[in-house]
Amino acid sequence: MSEFKLIHKYIPKASIPLVEGLLNKYKFYLIIKNNRKTKHGDFRPLPNGRMQITINNDMNEYRFLITFVHEVAHLVTHKKHKRVKPHGIEWKLHFQELMLPFFKPAIFPKELMPILANYMRNPKASTDSDIQLSYALKQFDEKSDKNYIFEIPLHTKFIHNNKVFVRGEKRRVRYKCMELKTKREYLFHPNAAVDLFEG
Q: Which domain does 77 fall in, by range?
């Protein structure tokens, strides 16, 4: 199956012509991967001179589309500037330029548009770094029994990666939580999805 057909089921239907336009223009390998906890997608130049973009397969269509354009912006930045900061001003400008045609109510829900527009004024390395956008995008995920860190009360026990933690105080943006077994402290993103501990 070509990249053109492969990507159709992962993105909003109205975005298909624009996405195909980018695939056509920049000629890269697109690989859809199983979930990787550390990233939503990545871009890399290959030894054969071609370019490769990989994207996780477990995201809702709006996060997938934003991630796709994010990675194409890396490709464009690499082609035009070679050695610059990965998420520097050049990447930000290309990301903004590439996202502009997608800002349509036929593609993104109206409640998401102002939050996404605010993020795009100065896009960060990950949509997860923008708490408002991250939370807004999660509203379109498949329903689950998980809870967000910011929703659970102080001193509540929860499970993350098969370890039991206790939710602590908020530190600027993230929450300080202690793993019960080792007593080590970790910082959790407010929108980290966890299971409540029933024990």
A: 3-138
